[in-house]
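hey so i finaly got around to running the thing on Biopolymer transporter ExbD from Salinimicrobium marinum. pasting the sequence first so u can double check i didnt mess up the copy paste, my clipboard has been acting weird all day
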Amino acid sequence: MARRSSPEVNAGSMADIAFLLLIFFLVTTTIETDSGISRKLPPMQEDEVEPPIIKQKNIFSVIVNRNNELLVEDEPMEIGALREAAIEFLDNGGGTGPEACDYCQGPRSPNSSDNPNKAVIMLVNDRATEYGTYITVQNELVAAYNHLRDRSARRLYNKSFVQMEEDYDNVNYSGNKETLKEQIEEIRNMWPQKLSEAEPKS
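ok and heres what it spat out for the 3d tokens, dont ask me to read them lol
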């Protein structure tokens, strides 16, 4: 009895199918991107420049130890109270004359910051500080700046600062983008984010 030959599978179009599947997955797949902490590094300088002299009262010191405990202005503090303390420091407006702040709403204590443009928040971490604590402290300090920027944006332009930034990034925004950019820069100049991180202690 003669053997029957098995029918061959036509594999001629397999390469085309694989190529189409590859294109499909490339088009439909979304790539997750890690969102980091936005920080601007100081520019490189060829000549050594002496750092500016900052009055001690214009420095808000935040120290995080290896046990994830906070020492703020040499006083123990819970992380939950950090944002309010930073807002009070930045919004103090204790300066007089050319250093006066006409938009600050703080107590104007002569023992705290003169002006938001002179106020610096200095953060010092221990090398053994947990990463989660580090991020939480960073978030609270940045939230203090965001709160003050939002307050000024609502007072001046009747719109939240976050909404202003979203409108500027929106390609379909119908308003004047140049004017909006100037307004955003004005708010940022009123509350410049001066957050200094010192070398972690071991």
